[in-house]
């Protein structure tokens, strides 16, 4: 299974020391160089990312597609979408609304942080998502509160 990731979910899980959730669910993650550079910009993340042998970097080759995507998205998102298409990835992990919409239009299957947390709970990798969501949201990650309420209710955490 090939999983490509953008920056946001990795950063948010790193901030709460739960990057293990990605490894538990997906094994290996592939990121493009633009995402690696974005991860390196956040203090302390370079050292952690460089130690993880299950996150690898691959270069997307379709420069025309990347240039097209750069009209609406940043470099990390553009390269991640292009790489997901080139590798025929099972999923692209991406949270930003515009990037998700464009990826879906291009036929890429997407999952975001909330979907990952739901899957982790469903598979038994975590007991609860409520406290994790509260911490992530207190760090600035935005989610629709009614969506969060629906998810917590469905998972029996409301």
Automatic annotation (TrEMBL):
UniProt-listed InterPro entries: PIN-like_dom_sf (IPR029060), PIN-like_prokaryotic (IPR021799)
SUPFAM superfamilies the UniProt entry points to: PIN domain-like
Alphabetical list of Pfam families matching this protein: DUF3368
Name of this protein: Nucleic acid-binding protein
Domain of life: Bacteria
